[in-house]
Design goal:
The protein is α+β, with helices and mostly antiparallel strands. The protein has helices at residues 18-28, 69-77, 91-100; strands spanning 8-14, 31-39, 44-51, 57-63, 80-88, 111-112, 117-122, 132-139. Helices cover 21% and strands 40% of the residues. The two termini are 28 Å apart. The model has no long low-confidence stretch (mean pLDDT 93). The structure holds zinc ion.
């Protein structure tokens, strides 16, 4: 099967302090804050940054409680790249395809992520140690 459109949508980065991290990217280049949201289910506060002419976003992730997945990640590995996210048009079809291809998925069905989008994750075991998120282009209706 041929995959048509599978662009890198964003890079997720685990940080201790959203403002401090935002400042770093604004010093690096002309990044502006695109959106910010607290995803209660995952106990995480996310902030999306986008560069003037860039198409790939940066997603800063800060845990909202010490037992949250992001805080656990920070304790184990410190600040740094947490996941890569690819954008697809039909998330259900991609989920079925990737499952057929033998990828180990972390969810049985897409879940609601930040910015009102459907997402799911591929286990790092299937991706050489990299956590991969698949997100759908269209927001949830
Ligand atoms: Zn993400």
């Amino acid at each position: 099967m041929q995959v048509k459109d599978f662009p890198l949508d964003h890079v997720g980065i685990a940080v201790r302090d959203l403002d401090e991290a935002t400042q770093r990217y604004q010093q690096l280049a002309s990044y502006h804050v695109l959106a910010e949201e607290t995803v209660h289910a995952q106990r995480v506060k996310v902030r999306f940054l986008q560069e003037e002419k860039g198409s790939c976003k940066i997603e800063l992730l800060q845990g909202t409680d010490p037992e949250s997945p992001i805080c656990t990640f920070l304790k184990k590995r410190g600040e740094g790249i947490h996941h890569l996210a690819f954008r697809v048009e039909d998330i259900q079809a991609e989920m079925s395809r990737l499952r057929r291809e033998g990828f180990q998925l972390l969810q049985d069905h897409p879940v609601k992520g930040a910015l009102n989008k459907w997402i799911f994750f591929i286990h790092p075991k299937s991706m050489g140690g990299v956590l991969v998120e698949i997100c759908q282009t269209a927001a949830i209706e």
